[in-house]
Design brief:
Layout lengths: L2 E18 L2 E15 L4 E6 L9 H18 L5 H11 L4 H19 L3 H4 L12 E3 L4 H13 L4 E5 L5 H11 L4 E5 L6 H13 L2 E5 L7 H10 L4 E3 L9 H4 L5 E5 H4 L2 H13 L3 E5 L5 H9 L6 E2 L12 E2 L21 E2 L3
Parallel strand pairs: 4-5, 5-6, 6-7, 7-8, 8-9, 9-10, 10-11
Antiparallel strand pairs: 1-2, 2-3, 12-13
Bound molecules: magnesium ion.
The site of magnesium ion has 7 residues, from loops.
Family: Belongs to the mandelate racemase/muconate lactonizing enzyme family.
Keywords: Isomerase, Magnesium, Metal-binding
Pfam family, one: MR_MLE_N
Length: 348
């Protein structure tokens, strides 16, 4: 058996500038990996590096030749464990870069067996939660419009980015435009512990489901303070990067928000999900602003999740890859008629 691997950088403008408490993003730089077997069958995966975790498209491209050499050395696309541990041995850190390769190899392995990836894992495709659609920070009228557009597109689960002096106004605007939607909020570390507890109180009045990452990850005691006093469940995102972080957050939040690009691969993501379950946490899978080259893979995990936040491709003006159709938030795994992750060039 032999494998041939290559990569390509893709720059994708966003539909709208996307703002969170830390800053604004107008384009996403992803790196797409293709791994091809001797019969010419190709698996595809994507890296969506996040500067918050020290990665950029440049750092991904810098380590990619070593990662692809490692895959070609193992040579067997079904040796998923060997490949992921080899990737970790070759490149420490750089989880988004490793993740792209892991996804491409998983895609290829499932394609060779002729099954969707979730079938290879034995998951029930009818058991997928809906994904939320994220409303970034903006002026209040734009936020109201975006929420109305999302409802119009069929979304019934919205996630609102907060962390401003207008938090209450923004939530009220979304509630006005989407009176029946399930709402979640994400402060991206912007609140103090006391502020978070106070805000959770009025967010509960507006029927919000949970608050995500209320306080900075560097303040684990603050997270515990919020968890013990908050009227709403607390989700940890920036505080929970890999499976190894799960024990430390287990007694200071209700929900672990895992992302493929944080964990560094699909096997590692499944390990993190198992770790969170073992610690009695609920599980959410989030994403960066990502092409379907990687979102389609995250969608395969959906039956393992309580909450999905996989709208990364929906925020793009145009995605060069198609995947599982998530346009109204429904993750239709049961309708997936393609083997692998379902990712493919958009023009196909
Ligand atoms: Mg988050």
């Amino acid at each position: 058996m032999s494998l041939d691997a290559e990569f390509e950088r893709v720059s994708m403008p966003l539909e709208n500038p996307f703002t969170i408490s830390r800053g604004t993003q107008t384009a996403a730089e992803n790196v797409v990996v293709r791994v091809t077997d001797e019969a010419g069958m190709t698996g595809v995966g994507g890296a969506a590096p996040s500067s918050h975790y020290g990665e950029t498209a440049d750092t991904v491209e810098a380590v990619m030749p070593d990662l692809l050499d490692a895959v070609e050395r193992v040579g067997d696309p079904h040796a998923l464990h060997a490949i992921e541990s080899e990737l970790r041995a070759v490149v420490e850190g750089n989880p988004a870069a490793r993740c792209a390769v892991s996804i491409a190899v998983h895609d290829l392995a499932a394609k060779r067996l002729g099954v969707p990836l979730h079938r290879l894992w034995g998951l029930d495709p009818s058991d997928a939660p809906k994904t939320s659609f994220t409303i970034g920070l903006d002026d209040t009228d734009r936020v109201r419009e975006k929420a109305a557009d999302a409802v119009e597109a069929g979304h019934s689960v919205l996630k609102i980015k907060l962390g401003t002096v207008r938090d209450r106004e923004l939530v009220d605007a979304v509630r006005e435009a989407a009176p029946d939607a399930r709402l979640r909020v994400d402060a991206n570390e912007a609140w103090t512990p006391k502020e978070a507890v106070r805000k959770a109180e009025w967010l509960a009045d507006r029927d919000v489901e949970f608050v995500e990452q209320p306080v900075p990850a560097e303040n684990p005691e603050g997270l515990r303070y919020v968890y013990e006093r908050s009227e709403l469940p607390v989700a940890a995102d920036e505080s929970c990067v890999t499976a190894a972080d799960v024990p430390a957050i287990a007694d200071r939040c209700d929900i672990a928000n895992l992302k493929l690009m944080k964990t560094g691969g699909l096997l590692e993501a499944r390990r993190a999900i198992a770790a969170a379950r073992a610690h009695g946490l609920e599980v959410m899978c989030g994403c960066m602003v990502e092409s379907n080259a990687s979102i389609a893979a995250a969608a395969q995990l959906a039956p393992l999740l309580d909450y999905a936040d996989l709208d990364g491709s929906l925020l793009l003006a145009e995605d060069p890859y198609a995947g599982i159709n998530l346009s109204d938030g429904e993750i239709r795994l049961a309708e997936q008629d393609r083997a692998g992750t379902g990712a493919r060039p958009a023009e196909e």
